[in-house]
Description:
Blueprint: H1 6-14, E1 22-27, E2 29-30, E3 42-43, H2 49-67, E4 76-81, H3 84-87, H4 89-101, E5 107-112, H5 119-128, E6 132-138, H6 142-148, H7 154-167, E7 170-177, H8 184-196, E8 201-206, H9 214-218, H10 229-245, E9 249-252, E10 255-257, H11 264-270, E11 275-278, E12 283-287, H12 288-297, E13 308-315, H13 319-324, E14 333-339, H14 340-351, H15 360-370, H16 372-384, E15 388-391, E16 394-397, H17 399-403, H18 405-414
The protein binds iron/sulfur cluster.
Amino acid sequence: xxxxxxxxxxxxxxxxxxxxxxxxxxxxxxxxxxxxxxxxxxxxxxxxxxxxxxxxxxxxxxxxxxxxxxxxxxxxxxxxxxxxxxxxxxxxxxxxxxxxxxxxxxxxxxxxxxxxxxxxxxxxxxxxxxxxxxxxxxxxxxxxxxxxxxxxxxxxxxxxxxxxxxxxxxxxxxxxxxxxxxxxxxxxxxxxxxxxxxxxxxxxxxxxxxxxxxxxxxxxxxxxxxxxxxxxxxxxxxxxxxxxxxxxxxxxxxxxxxxxxxxxxxxxxxxxxxxxxxxxxxxxxxxxxxxxxxxxxxxxxxxxxxxxxxxxxxxxxxxxxxxxxxxxxxxxxxxxxxxxxxxxxxxxxxxxxxxxxxxxxxxxxxxxxxxxxxxxxxxxxxxxxxxxxxxxxxxxxxxxxxxxxxxxxxxxxxxxx
Length: 417
Ligand code: SF4
């Protein structure tokens, strides 16, 4: 297919990268399961030997992926969970391996919870080369934290955020809105509290009440007022106003950062940069070329169809199985093969999460593979509905587009059909 111009050619090159731009490592262990959590994580006791075995297996998988050439272009690494800080010393060893195998990486983030982010661990992570900590705070009110089943106190959260900032990390605080007992005033105070700790990045999410969780059980037969869409929208708007007036810039629907403090890793997810996920439940998004490189060390993976442009994989081995897996060849995956058409629609949908919207090269490419009139009519409809605006060479989501995200993202994805 002939590229329309430099922008589209640049975009096309991204769709064929043989190496990933970002690496995600999943540690699925927590001190206790929170009442709202349906993530891939399990509660266990501190220093459970399984955590050490699991991390050792992950370190082997990491070096295999590096030897296969999949990580030569990797720029960022994110260790998520679960609660990576709960794993303790093995987490620092994993970060050390990342640093020695991937010297070109410029950002290494670890998720942490206040109750397991000791001074000792801060020192170990700094020495190992971790640059960024994403701390799960959720609220700075003890009664709200108790409702969520969190095991740390508000005071502990503020204290550990301050310690992490002082130790020299780039620190992000995660907060949750539309939760039980929360008021506009307490939400405002939680936001002001984390800003006061000196963090450079704040992520804000409305609580999602999932069926298979204690909170889902509790509210099975009612739609609680504290979580209704209007409350969610009002709290997200309140966060936007407060954070932007405090000097933070919103760069994604849920993410705010001071100058230079954006999480570069997360941006890969929204800009079609391929990424590799290692660990139980971890997902990867690979180009056809990257999938070919992975198949060299994972001969159990099937050959893609001729029309495949992108592959999404999720590791379905449970934590014990993963800890026992001596190599990537022992793992099992759920697979999804995407055509060029599906990949283009997906990229438009993901790009609409970003303040800067979608790049001209992506729109040119989408017109080529999805049809000029289909793309232009969809964008015109979104503009007429106030969901999207055309700013300079880019198409960007409006505040209304984010508030009605399901409609906006749905319209983009519908282009695949
Ligand atoms: S700490 Fe995070 S991953 Fe662990 S149970 Fe709570 S919400 Fe889930």
